[in-house]
């Protein structure tokens, strides 16, 4: 799975995936065979953190 390189596009992509297909970030990562840090680190660089209760990056 090739993730978008641009953090803003990555944010949109991941939040859409979480909203439409996955109940948690962990499930998304397992399903797509992606290390969580490959998502969280770029999004932290633009000020977004995963909110477990809302199941999205805010």
Mean pLDDT: 97
Beta-strand fraction estimate: 5-15%
Helix % is 40-55%
**How many H/I helical runs?**
3
Task: Report the uncertain regions.
Answer: none
The outline comes out as globular
**Strand elements, count:** 2
> Rg from C-alpha positions?
10 Å
How would you sum up the major sheet? 2 strands, antiparallel
H/E order of the elements? HHHEE
Strand order of the largest sheet: 1-2
Structural class: mainly alpha
Distance between the termini: 23 Å
Can you describe this structure?
With 58 residues, the protein is mostly helical. It starts with 6 loop residues before the first helix and ends with a strand. A two-stranded antiparallel sheet has the order 1-2. It has helices at 7-20, 25-32, 37-44, and strands at residues 50-51, 56-57. The protein is globular. It is built from three helices and two strands, in the order αααββ.
Present the secondary structure layout.
Elements: H1 7-20, H2 25-32, H3 37-44, E1 50-51, E2 56-57
Antiparallel strand pairs: 1-2
Defining traits:
mainly alpha, 3 helices, two-stranded antiparallel ribbon, 52% helix, 58 residues
What's this model, at a glance?
This protein is mostly helical and 58 residues long.
């Amino acid at each position: 799975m090739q993730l978008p390189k641009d953090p803003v596009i990555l944010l949109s992509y991941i939040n859409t995936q979480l909203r439409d297909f996955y109940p948690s970030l962990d499930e998304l990562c397992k399903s797509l065979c992606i290390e969580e840090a490959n998502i969280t680190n770029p999004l932290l660089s633009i000020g977004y953190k995963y909110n477990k209760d809302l199941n999205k990056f805010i």
